[in-house]
Specification:
InterPro entries (chain A): Dimeric_a/b-barrel, YCII
CATH architecture of chain A: 2-Layer Sandwich
Shape of chain B: elongated
Shape of chain A: flat
Helix content of chain B: 55-70%
Organism (chain A): Streptomyces sp. R39
Number of strands of chain A: 6
CATH class of chain A: Alpha Beta
Strand content of chain B: under 5%
Family (chain A): Belongs to the YciI family.
Number of strands of chain B: 2
Strand content of chain A: 25-35%
Strand order of the largest sheet of chain A: 2-5-1-6
Distance between the termini of chain A: 27 Å
Protein name (chain A): YciI family protein
Oligomer: heterodimer
Domain YCII-related (chain A): 15-109
Largest sheet of chain B: 2 strands, antiparallel
Number of domains of chain A: 1
Strand order of the largest sheet of chain B: 1-2
Chain lengths: 140, 381
């Protein structure tokens, strides 16, 4: 099994095919979209492949250390930041093919006119924390 | 297995151990062990005397842990003084336990976790699931909380207001996972209100019951939010409403008004109206005025603006909004609502979309996006 992060962006991904902002959909189209997303997560829970899913707010702050005894420096929110994450889903699947298949299904969520959004999702494999059971002797 | 019984016994079992001389932190751990054991064993082998069973198992666990601790301490050659055995609690043990778990030295999240475990009798796993954090994280939070209150004497009188704030937080968390935190908050507040002679405890209980009564009507089958005005009032729980109103009236009669009673009074006026159109908004505004006097909270002023908009028309509502900081949470949503009623769907749609971007939970975000979509769709037609 391997874990993959499916990342959804507010901004920064290539434009989807069905590119209409959500507040321009009909309320029924929004409901259909929400239903699709919920069903998708529920199905992955049933297959034992769902790990976590979260959405994050569009506005946040940049923060950095500013030296001993001082409060951290904050800046932003940066409206011009190119890449803005909207949320993610973590899945635990048998193969990269399966991860891509699932990302494809998620990208087919219905949007304006009830047609698939064809949204671009980023699929990123997790680096595993523990070394595997087999030791690698190459170069050793 | 009767989990409700198990949970209701928790605080008294805990106080038995403390009364026998166990310190609070160790006693609480031992009771938690006994609870987990009960959940495992009781379904197949229910005890004849549940409380006696819990006391016996918890006390045994406490002794085992203390012996292991003492041995370890000896090994480490430490001669730290044992804290003196806790004084025999005089008044109401469970109430003392509430004060300790809501102690002002605790952060709100710690007080909530400790209250749910020591008073509510929930397991760490259940609390962790309810708050969507890993079990190890919740276990740490609870043990840190216990270290924080380690020096507090068990018999010190506490402030009911701090306990009420903790219970209010639990109630507002709602429910996720297998534990219904709102119902749990109602249960604990009911216990508290029965123990203390405090109009605000009654006020909070009334407030919770009146809100809880509307719960079934508040979400559509697909999980989306249904605003108060559009709820099917036939689905409100009239038994809970009657109970809440009765408790509130008795509290108000004592003429010691507080924040929770005023909030409950507003909830009661909503519950009183057979239809949304028949709501007594004039009286609701008066209660908001009381609340503003009591709290001075800008959030209260924001909600007051909605009530003013209903009582005196949207222009008056917008005027009430004028003095408030636009950065307040839910400000754009309130402004959107008032602008729509004022016949300006374009501004309203823009503000609803802005409000959706600032929403702090998904159901609210989806609801606000739908409102923007509804107005935009209508304009296109």
């Amino acid at each position: 099994m391997a874990k993959y992060l499916l990342l959804k962006h507010y901004r920064g991904a290539p434009a989807p095919v069905n590119n209409v902002p959500m507040d321009q959909w009909t309320p029924e189209e929004i409901s259909a979209h929400v239903q699709y997303m919920n069903d998708f997560a529920a199905r992955l829970e049933k297959t034992g492949e769902f790990v976590d899913g979260q959405a994050v707010a569009p506005e946040g702050l940049w923060v950095r250390y500013d030296g001993e005894g001082r409060p951290p420096v904050t800046d932003g929110p940066f409206a011009e930041t190119k890449d803005l994450i909207a949320g993610w889903m973590v899945i635990d699947v048998d193969s990269q093919e399966r991860a891509l298949e699932l990302a494809g299904e998620l990208s087919a969520a219905p949007g304006a006119g009830g047609r698939p959004i064809h949204e671009w999702l980023e699929v990123r494999p997790f680096l595993t924390a523990a070394p595997g059971g087999m030791e690698c002797h190459a170069g050793g | 297995m009767d989990e409700a019984l198990l949970r209701s016994l928790t605080p008294s079992v805990l106080t038995v151990l403390v009364r026998r001389g166990a310190d609070f932190a160790a006693a609480e751990d031992a009771v938690q062990d006994a609870l987990v054991e009960a959940i495992r064993v009781w379904p197949a082998d229910p005890p004849r005397d549940p409380k006696g069973w819990l006391v016996t198992v918890a006390w045994r666990r406490f002794l085992d842990a203390t012996r292991a601790d003492t041995a370890r301490r000896r090994r480490e050659e430490r001669v730290d003084e044992e804290p003196p055995p806790g004084p025999v609690p005089a008044a109401d043990d469970t109430l003392q336990l509430c004060f300790l778990c809501a102690h002002p030295s605790l952060t709100p999240s710690s007080a909530v976790a400790l209250t749910l475990r020591a008073v509510g009798g929930l397991t760490t796993r259940q609390i962790a699931r309810a708050y969507l954090v890993p079990e190890a994280t919740m276990a740490q939070r609870i043990s840190r909380a216990k270290r924080t209150v380690a020096g507090v004497r068990f018999d010190q009188p506490g402030d009911v207001a701090t306990v009420l704030r903790v219970l209010y937080l639990v109630f507002n968390e709602g429910y996720s996972g297998d534990v219904d935190l709102a119902a749990e908050a109602v249960r604990l507040t009911r216990q508290l209100a029965a123990r203390v002679d405090h109009p605000e405890a009654a006020g909070l209980l009334a407030l919770m019951l009146l809100h809880h009564a509307r719960r079934a009507a508040r979400t559509a089958p697909d999980g989306s939010l249904v605003p108060l005005a559009e709820q099917d009032r036939g689905r409100w729980d009239t038994r809970l409403i009657a109970e809440g109103v009765g408790i509130l009236q008795a509290a108000l009669a004592r003429d010691r008004l507080g924040e929770f009673q005023a909030q409950a009074a507003i909830a009661a006026l909503h519950a009183d109206a057979p239809t949304a159109a028949e709501t007594d908004w004039v009286q609701i505004v008066e209660w908001y005025d009381e609340l503003v006097t009591l709290t001075g909270s800008p959030v209260v002023r924001l909600n007051r603006a909605v009530a003013v908009g209903e009582a005196d028309g949207p222009r008056a509502g917008l005027a009430a909004l004028a003095g408030l900081d636009a950065a307040l949470p839910r400000y754009p949503a309130v402004a959107a609502y008032l602008h729509e009623r004022d016949g300006d769907p374009t501004t309203a749609a823009r503000l609803y979309a802005e409000a959706a971007g600032k929403a702090t939970n998904l159901a609210e975000r989806d609801h606000l996006t739908r409102q923007a979509a509804r107005l935009n769709t209508r304009r296109r037609r």
